[in-house]
Design goal:
heterotrimer; A alpha/beta (344); B alpha+beta (349); C mainly alpha (721); B: 349 residues; alpha+beta; Rossmann fold; OB fold (Dihydrolipoamide Acetyltransferase, E2P); 2 domains; six-stranded mixed beta sheet; five-stranded antiparallel beta sheet; 24% helix; elongated; C: 721 residues; mainly alpha; MetI-like fold; 3 domains; two-stranded antiparallel sheet; two-stranded antiparallel ribbon; disordered C terminus; ABC transporter substrate-binding protein (chain A); signal (chain A); thiamine pyrophosphate binding (chain A); Ferric-bd (chain A); thiamine binding (chain A)
Chain lengths: 344, 349, 721
Amino acid sequence: MASRRPFALAFLAGLLGVLLPGGARAQGSLTVYCSVQEEWCRPMVAGFERATGIRVAMTRKSSGETLTQVRAEASNPRGDVWWGGTGDPHMQAGQENLTEEYRSPRLAELHPWAVRQAEQANFRTVGIYAGALGYSYNATELNRRRIAAPRCWSDLAKPEFRGEVQVADPNTSGTAYTMLATLVQLMGEEPAFTYLRALHRNVNQYTRSGAAPARAAATGETLVGITFLHDAVTQKIAGAPVEIVAPCEGTGYEIGSMSIIRGARNMENARRFYDWALSPEAQAIAAQANSFQLPSNRASPIPPQAPRFEDVRLIDYDFARWGSVAERTRLLQRWEREVRAGAR
Amino acid sequence: MTDAAIRFERVTKAFGVVRAVDDLTFDLPRGALVTLLGPSGCGKTTTLRLVAGLELPTEGRIEIEGGDVTRLAAAERRIAMVFQSYALFPHMTVLENVSYGLVVGGARRQSAEGEAQAMLKTLGLEGLGARLPAELSGGQQQRVAVARALVLRPKVLLFDEPLSNLDARLRRRVREDIRDLQKRLGLSVVYVTHDQQEALAVSDLLVVMRDGRIAQKGTPTELYDDPADAFVADFMGEANVLEGEVLASDGGMGRIAVGGAVLEAPMRAHPAGRASLAVRPEAIRLVSAEQGAGLPGRVQRAAFLGQTREYEVATEAGMLFVVTPAAAPAWEEGAEVLCRMERVIPLRT
Amino acid sequence: MGALTLGRLALLAGLAGVLLAPWHGMEDAAALAAWPRAEAAPLAALLADGERWWMWPAVGLLALAALPLVRGRMAGGLVAACGAAILAIVFLQGQAIGLRGLAWPALAPLLGTPAPQPALGWGGALVLAAAAGLIASGLAQRGRFGGDAFIAFLVVGSAGLLLLFVFVPLLTILSAAAIEDGRLAPGALAARLAAHEAWSLACVTTHQGCGVVWNTLLLACLAAAASTLIGLAFALLSARGGVRAQPAFRAMTILPLITPPFVVSLALIVLFGRTGLVTTAMWDWFGIPRSRWIYGLPGVLLAQVLAQAPIAFVLLEGAVRAIGPSLEEAAATMGARHFVVFRTVTWPLLRPALAACLLLGFVESLSDFGNPLVLGGDFDVLSTRIFFAIAGARHEPGRAAALALLLLALTFGAFALQALWLGRRRYTTVTGKGDSGVPAPLPRGLRISCGAVAWPWMGFTATVYGIILVGGFVHDIGRGDMAFTWRHILTGFEVEWRDGIAFRGSAWDSLFTTLEVAAISAPLTAGLGILLAWLLARQSFPGRGALEFMAMLSFAIPGTVVGVSYIMAFNEPPVELTGTALILVVCFVFRNLPVGVRGGIAALAQIDKSLDEASATMGGGAVQTLRRVVLPLLRPAIVAALAFSFVHAMTAVSAVIFLVSARHNLATVYIVGRVEAGEMALAIAYCTVLILVMLAVVLGIERIVGRAQLGRRPAPLRAGA
């Protein structure tokens, strides 16, 4: 008997080890869910820690994943602030009462597009950067095929681009949904769908991630990739032979947003982060991190590489309407039925 | 308490709807070699496994040396078992195999190995301790299995068809060895086999099983000479079973009528009337047709086997199988003979 | 182990749980300073203060069970009933009274308005373990489980853990399939299950894609068949082919095992993408037009087979080696020629392993997420569709749950088929009788065809890994910019020497967490898996089928579903695990468990049961038998389970992407982030580091635990004496 006991005890201990909710919890006095690229998240966190001395724990996830997580954790929130990521999930979280209303004293310093978005969301979210939609093409491949450089949305529907356009699937990507909503606002719903059906014949793949087409265009996997312009800029700066196009008809944009999670455990620190993230110093970090969106604070420096809104014909994007769940579901279902199901 | 090594009280073991052991009750004496015998599927192996604790009974009570072990796990019963496949641990040396039981029982490795060495020597395996089982012959593996069981000095030692993987010559030697050891050490042994010769050779007590029940229990001589029914008679060696009539029986002799003839033969008392009568092949003497009383017949086939001769004789009562010593007179095929019975067994059913 | 001993141990655990250990979970270890008050208060202190008075019945039951145990005269039924009641009370009160006070209004008349209570902690866990021990000892005393309390405890304990960590989360999320707008809607369930997106057969007649179920099935069947075939070729060559290059052989086949899944996809794009190295070469030299064939079924299939074939190899090699040569010799002596021996003896004996391989390949393909994500193109499979149904722009948990149900159905279909194919034959080849034959060499034709499959595949694998190895050290392999650089490695793994070592690279945190979590979960997985396998294969007890089903269940569930279900199930008291490293460990243990169990069962099927029985009759209890007989014979299975669970813990993505937290981020999630950001080079560089780490660990495990010695002639280590 004596020799059996240690084994049994060891097993018991192992069992307990598995069962036990350990004492290890996030100790940071602020937990940030970050939905932009890692190398932008990190200096942001470091900058805030330097500025305030508050310790920050940060998780990086795409905005869709973060929304899922925030939703699942709603009854016992783990995060305090959700920073970055395209605006629609933030709007949706606001509609679902997952985020907290907060009016930052810095609201007055922001660009009008950011203020308008905050108003539309009942101040449950706020814009921190904006990026225009467009596309990039691989110049090397284009020259090799002797195709004229595209300049407009309509160019992409031409037969010479057959099988050469890549765009994300609006079901999975906020970027692609922004394109869908942009085209509908730009052309009107019926002509937009006629255009999309024509474009569909030229699309070689609907990727799942919004930024993937920019990468594909950079490596030549596709000729044209429809993305936010700043994603394409990142590729170009890394040395890819891509040219960036802001379509001549005009285009829509996303507003990268920030929200405070309802029931945040560190509400006070969350508000400090919120205010700080809207300051010009904080927004200047973006460019150092190879992110070339437009910052929302009017006083923030605009990186020279950033595609400026002045050079882009922007439409008056109605975030409240096209970000609503009902409208989004309707558009996506129509797209699925009339565009995606079509033959290529 | 009782003097029984093993006692079964109304033990039943059911696998689903099949009752492998059905309401079994018996006592097995201490210090004896008891053989469970029967055709495959008769429940003898299940009975052995119930003793070992490898199966737990569905109903009933099992005692070993007076203690209730019905719900006790195999490891706590202080029995040992030799398996048909030997079940030697392939990753351990012979010495490790033999000392295994001692070591898991809490003995120190050195003393355990000392005892194991001694046991190996007893069984004539000295010098093989460092080998792996795979490097031994079949007979050696068998003896290692026995050594491994014996070294534990178990209350009861169980054998599950231990000889079935050996050749005939080896089988005979090993069974004598087992019997010798058992007698020398005064072990209580339960032995399972389907080979009646083996059973007769080694047993103090035989238990013949059929369909999960005991068909008959007794000493080898009792079972051979006085089987209770046709099943036992046939299973305990060859028997000619004749339908006939007992006319009278008295004082160890009887008068019977079979196949139109009336014979006198040694026989235990049996009420007069129709009966099944078993006659062992060697209990029939063949004499020439002129010699008076006897069941007439014709030799259909004759074979010379060295020590014995075998005949098939067609009679009115049916075909008789006869074995005579080689020294007895030989008969040609086709010869007319009279069959005389030197012992007749009236069966109870 | 005796029932009484176990009962007393359980009693001790229960006492410790009530008197000493903090009853509730603590925010951090510093709270322990306040013991025995405040956050760290044990249940006894809470009860003394008049709080948690609804726990008095549980304490009373513990005392009731203690009486017979201390006196040494057990009443099994009573003790078991007490244990079960304690279990029920602890869980129900935790559910009923949560973070916001009473959660079940129906209980208000009984409980009043109790104060909110946080999750269970060490104390709660000890009491729960004690309850399991009481149940087990009571049942064992009543003669269940062969009267062995150790086995009883294993069964009760593992059943409890499986219920808690497999069944409950699954139930939580799958109930979502039948819920629409917060109400139960069977109609919605039916509609979701029969959805066009799942079952459409459009691809047969038009250019459109087929339903996602058909896609998944097609891919899984192809992947299972191809990987098994390639694995078999390797296994036959390695075990019987007389191949000299064993070490290289092993290394080459281990390599794909230890690879984060999507890195193979990346390498395949680099090779076969439209501007890939091979594609470009083909165009330049042969004028073969460049196409995008790699995106879709062919690419995903290739990536999955690259990952799965080595696993098949490991499984099948073990099986080939375990076939007793005397069986083949027997056939040969009966006059059968080489090939006939192979066909009539070797091949049928391989069937269980082959079935296991096919099943594993099939199920792995079903639950693969990384490769379809990167290479799928327009070719959608269930796992990605589920992921995007949850995490995509349209959030539809109901649709995701319905798709998950379909995925489950596919997996169980595969299990059923396997059972059907194997039937009830016996395949024991390691018996107590030593087997001293010499393995038969492969028939010549077969050896040549095995070589024809294996060697080119090896070359292909080498190329893919070459790309991975190089990719981390050049500027941008995707664009063919092959200038050497340390930049990517430095970004991730910079180390600074300034008063002590400082890990400045951005990848260090996630690497350390990953290693820690994998190192904790691998032995737990292997241990629990092998124990379960032994229980399932060797012990007969009521509910064995149900236990096996639960143990296998988690394998069939796509990782994404597991991740979300864990968040849903363990974010609130009584069991609150989100945000801890523990939830990652638990997730890995129960996700990888089926592999340990399968491997263990397959290995046990090759070991004669009489070996266990012999040990038992010689006084070896369940524990001794396990330790001295079964486990040594199961070494190959243990090595496989350890290595597999470690590697899978390091390479899993889909399940943990929802479970990582700020403090506990994992390497794969970090890499996915890099891939999303288009930083292929950094991703590949990190993967290279991961591969090296895993390689070292896997080889280390094999070195330490070693390979089984079964005493065949080719290994006469201890002969000669």
